[in-house]
Amino acid sequence: MTVTGDSGNVWPSVPLTDEAIEALVTGAEVDAEFAVLTAFADAVSTAADQPAPTPSAALATVLQGQPAVAGSARGRLVAKVAGLGLAVKIALGASVAAAAAAGAGAAGMLPEPVDDLVRDVIEKVTPIEFDDPAHAPTGSTPTTVPAAPAPGTVGPGAPEQTPPAGGSSPTPPGTPGTPATPGTPAGTAPATPTPGSPTTGTPQPQAPPATEPPPRTVPAPVPTVPATVPPVPATPPSAPGHGPPEDHPSATVVPPSSPGHGPPEDHSPATVITPGHGHPAGAGRPSEEEPPADDEG
Amino acid sequence: MQRDRFGGQFDAVLAAANRREPWALERIFQSLSPVVAGYLRLQGCREPDDLTSEVFLGVFRNLASFDGGEGEFRSWVFTIARRRLLDERRRLSRHPDPEPLSTMTDPEAADDVQGSVDEAIATERVQALCKRLVPDQREVLLLRLVGQLSVEEVAAAVGKTQGAVRALQHRGFLAIGRLMKREGMVL
Questions:
Q1: Which among A137, A160, A194, B4 would be 20 to 30 A from B120, CA to CA?
Q2: Does residue A7 belong to the interface with chain B, where contact is any CB pair within 8 Å?
Q3: CA-based nearest residue in chain A for residue B122
Q4: Which residue has the higher pLDDT, A189 or A74?
Q5: What angle, 0 to 180 degrees and rounded to 10, lies between the N-to-C axes of helices A35-48 and B135-145?
Q6: What tens digit of pLDDT does each residue of A75-86 get?
Q7: What are the start-end ranges of the H helices in chain A?
Q8: Which burial class, exposed, middle or buried, applies to B71 when counting CB atoms under 10 A from its CB (0-12, 13-18, 19+)?
Q9: Residue A45 touches partner B, C-beta closer than 8 Å
Q10: What angle do the packed helices B113-131 and A35-48 form, to 10 degrees?
């Protein structure tokens, strides 16, 4: 590419080679054709090479061998947030506020009306459901459930003293509402304690599962069980195959292929009748680790 | 402009700076801050002195992670300067500062007033000329002329291949020469 110069000649008349550029950069002599470029390189060098600027206060501190005071992570975070746009700031603030309200609501730390509202919102926008009869919808899987009483454990105050039945963990968040385990339809499992006959049921001999579940804490069975079992306020964390899901809105239903849960018969029955829920008689069955209360009676 | 700004004592200065000895930190700042500030100024930075301080805060904060000779150190310093400049441009694109009355810093009073004025005018012309370059060409030319970086060092600093850097500097010099010839510009 060429241009016409003052003299009418094209410029440059000689090619600008890499060697000529190196000479321009280092200040060596170049062809007179590139005199304008030499002037430019000199002017740039002169314009750039000024006396050292005055250091800022933070840098002056560092130059004296002291640690910097203005470069903390918190300061950088504040500066970064301050540099965000207005819309991003609003969205960020709303997200933080929503997360805080949701966390407080999930923890039950808000006043009851607010708590109800927050929980309703959480249940609507997430798969999480809370084990509150007043809020318990039907047909989905809860994420957080209270500790459930072992078979034979009675009394409203008992759940927090009893480890979760079968040691199964609650279903992780995101597990969709799963129907009862196929092959174990509701009502087919034998010997499930019912409100009228809490001591019924005999452990059925079963083949060991193909995959052993992780070690679990077996709750000590209660030797004697009163004839009438008062209603238990909570539902167990895991009760696979113990009736239709609509009867146990807060029960964790584990799909048959869920890793780490094992076959359905590995789970302790922990079938607890929740008041107001139409639990079919005979649903669920005990596991080999947790014999029914009447075994020892 | 000399490449060796530490008189052959760079390794000793770097070792002392890593021990946070003030004389070594000051030596590094005094040696390289003028060209860093000049690079930032010719890149159109609004507050080149402030940004230079930020650059050297970053340099001294991460000094322990550096390993190499003087050439690599200069390239590393200009890499930090370039990143700070990009950060500033990003910030200004979101929150533009009020347009300053003059992009020139106030020159200190000098005995040679005529000389100072000439220098200021020359600097302003150079700035105006650089502004008319394509940003990639301007960056390469300034890193080469102001930073005294080699083609390899510039390529590492800007994240381009050496061939791309050579092509950019070639086109940049030709563009400058044509502009000056066409407009009869004298620097």
A1: B4
A2: no
A3: A43
A4: A74
A5: 80
A6: 566 656 666 677
A7: 18-26, 35-48, 57-63, 73-82, 86-106, 112-125
A8: middle
A9: yes
A10: 110
Residue by residue, pLDDT tens for chain B (187 residues) are 566 778 889 999 999 999 999 999 999 999 999 999 999 999 989 889 999 999 999 999 999 999 999 989 999 999 999 999 999 989 888 877 666 555 555 555 556 677 777 777 878 888 889 999 999 999 999 999 999 999 999 998 899 999 999 999 999 999 999 999 888 877 7
- Yes or no, beta carbons of B122 and A43 under 8 Å apart: yes
**Residues 6 or more apart whose Cβ sits within 8 Å of residue B57:** A56, A58, A59, A62, A68, A70, A71
What residues pair up with A109 in beta bridges, in sequence order?
none
| 3-class SS string, chain B | CCCCCCCCCHHHHHHHHHCCCHHHHHHHHHHHHHHHHHHHHHCCCCCHHHHHHHHHHHHHHCHHHCCCCHHHHHHHHHHHHHHHHHHHHHHHHHCCCCCCCCCCCCCCCCCCHHHHHHHHHHHHHHHHHHHCCCHHHHHHHHHHHCCCCCHHHHHHHHCCCHHHHHHHHHHHHHHHHHHHHHHCCCC
What is the signed CA dihedral for A128, A133, A139, A141, rounded to 10 degrees? 30
